[in-house]
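Need a sequence for this fold. Nothing fancy.
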C-alpha cells in the first residue's frame, strides 16, 4: 500500500537543502509577518515557555554552548557590522544607561570589592601577555598625545592668573564675568583636549569650578550660546 506520510518524509530528507534555502528566502522577504507571528505566539504561550525553561535549564544551556561554539565567527562579524552602522545609537543608549544606573553601580562595587579584586587577578593571570601589550599600547598613545598637546608648566599658569587680574582688577571667571572666591578657581581649556585643544596660553582661561564642570566638553562659543538662553547664569555661579 502507498503511504503518503512516509513518502513525504523521504522526499524532505532527500531535499533538505532546498527547503532550508526556500525558508530563508521567504523569511527575508516577509520579515514583518514573521515578527507579528512570533509576538502573537509569545503572548499566548508565556506560561508554557516559562515552565519549559525551568524544567529544561541544563539541556538548554548545553545546546546554547554548542551553538555558540559552532557560530563564533559569524556572530563576531555580525556584531562588528551592526556596531559600525549604529555607532551613534549605541553611544546614546550607553550614556542613558550610565546616567540612570550610577548609584546602583557604586553600591554594587562597594558591596563586592573582594569579588571584583579576585576576578581582576584571575583575568590578569590568564591573560598576562595581552594585558602587558595593552599597557604598552596605551603608554605609546599617551606619549604621542602629550607631544601634540604640549607641556602645561607652572610659569604658563602663573602668567594666565596675572593677566586675568590685570584685565579685570580681581580674579574673575572668563565665562560668567563674576569674581572668584578663594578655593573656587580652576583652569579651563577654551577648546577641550578631547576635541583637538592643547595647553597653549591662548587656549587657557580661569573659571569657577562649577562653570568649568557645566561647560564640560563644549567650546567657548557653544557654552555662550547656552548662557544666552539662561537668565539665571549669575545665580548658578554663586550657588
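Here you go.
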Amino acid at each position: 500500500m502507498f503511504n503518503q506520510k512516509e513518502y513525504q518524509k523521504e522526499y524532505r530528507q532527500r531535499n533538505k537543502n532546498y527547503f532550508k534555502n526556500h525558508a530563508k528566502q521567504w523569511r527575508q522577504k516577509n520579515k514583518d509577518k514573521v515578527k507579528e507571528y512570533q509576538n502573537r505566539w509569545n503572548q499566548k504561550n508565556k506560561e508554557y515557555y516559562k515552565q519549559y525553561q525551568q524544567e529544561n535549564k541544563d539541556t538548554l544551556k548545553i545546546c546554547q554552548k554548542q551553538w555558540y561554539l559552532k557560530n563564533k565567527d559569524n556572530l563576531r562579524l555580525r556584531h562588528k557590522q551592526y556596531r559600525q552602522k549604529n555607532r551613534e545609537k549605541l553611544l546614546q543608549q550607553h550614556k542613558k544607561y550610565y546616567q540612570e544606573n550610577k548609584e546602583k553601580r557604586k553600591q554594587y562595587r562597594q558591596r563586592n570589592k573582594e569579588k571584583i579584586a579576585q576576578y581582576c587577578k584571575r583575568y590578569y593571570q590568564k591573560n598576562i601577555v595581552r594585558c602587558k601589550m595593552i599597557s604598552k599600547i596605551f603608554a605609546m598613545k599617551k606619549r604621542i598625545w602629550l607631544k601634540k598637546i604640549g607641556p602645561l608648566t607652572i610659569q604658563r599658569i602663573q602668567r594666565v592668573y596675572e593677566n586675568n587680574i590685570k584685565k579685570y582688577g580681581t580674579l574673575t571667571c572668563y565665562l560668567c564675568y563674576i569674581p572668584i572666591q578663594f578655593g573656587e578657581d580652576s583652569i579651563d581649556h577654551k577648546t577641550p583636549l578631547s576635541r583637538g585643544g592643547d595647553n597653549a596660553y591662548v587656549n587657557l582661561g580661569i573659571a569657577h569650578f562649577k562653570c568649568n564642570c557645566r561647560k564640560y566638553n563644549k567650546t567657548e562659543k557653544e557654552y555662550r550660546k547656552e548662557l544666552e538662553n539662561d537668565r539665571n547664569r549669575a545665580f548658578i555661579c554663586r550657588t
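For context: Residues 2 and 128 are 67 Å apart (CA to CA).
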